[in-house]
Amino acid sequence: xxxxxxxxxxxxxxxxxxxxxxxxxxxxxxxxxxxxxxxxxxxxxxxxxxxxxxxxxxxxxxxxxxxxxxxxxxxxxxxxxxxxxxxxxxxxxxxxxxxxxxxxxxxxxxxxxxxxxxxxxxxxxxxxxxxxxxxxxxxxxxxxxxxxxxxxxxxxxxxxxxxxxxxxxxxxxxxxxxxxxxxxxxxxxxxxxxxxxxxxxxxxxxxxxxxxxxxxxxxxxxxxxxxxxxxxxxxxxxxxxxxxxxxxxxxxxxxxxxxxxxxxxxxxxxxxxxxxxxxxxxxxxxxxxxxxxxxxxxxxxxxxxxxxxxxxxxxxxxxxxxxxx
Length: 325
Hints:
About 40% of the residues lie in helices and about 15% in strands. By secondary structure, it is α/β, with parallel strands linked by helices. It has a domain at about 1-170 and about 210-240 and about 275-290: Rossmann fold (3-Layer(aba) Sandwich).
């Protein structure tokens, strides 16, 4: 089987390429990425072909999709704050780009597994969030991801295209970048704690999230591709945990062994107050799925961060020795 991963040099995409390349039934993995938020270095040591290009290029998509057996569509312009700064750019990549991907898949009858987001639930207060709830997006990003999944499911209904749309909930783990204005909460907190700088929490910190470790996510995605799993509606990819953001900070501080200097800032527009998934449909479709406990996943993520040069402390001068021979 040959598999195309759009956004394949990004955080989730590169981890998925690594997982797919390890599966004996996968012959070739192609990562398509414009490197606007992904990095070629994420694919170092991975048996995958990187094609630098955009999902907004229909001719390129048609050429690549004609030679694969499945597509995992992860390419997107992420981040709620980024969408507030430039709503049109988020719409163009997330909505229009998805249609280009789907058109190529429709022409060549190639199944699609695609990434939506828990943000589509938005202002709906019911917990846990189950897939039959209405959607009330609170940001341009959330609206664009709702468009993504809606187009995917519509192509399945209209053209008989085999499709599966996952709603991701706060995925975290190795390769997730930090140190920029749009960093997700886990890498942003780890970065601050390792550098000894204040941890910025927007709002009171009592907002809750359902965190999902990247290893679990990519195993489910790979399984979906190999077993050709489809579903006429969206599927939550999370397990129903509910962790206050301030508690996440304390857990990370304990793992790193550094006190957290928490600085509260004004809540951000478009942020959802509480997020928690119902995982019933996920377990029905993937009965062997295993959740990685948050503490274990955070420890693995911190371990990866400590391998990066910018987080490796220099040897103190008093420990340096000079050998004279």
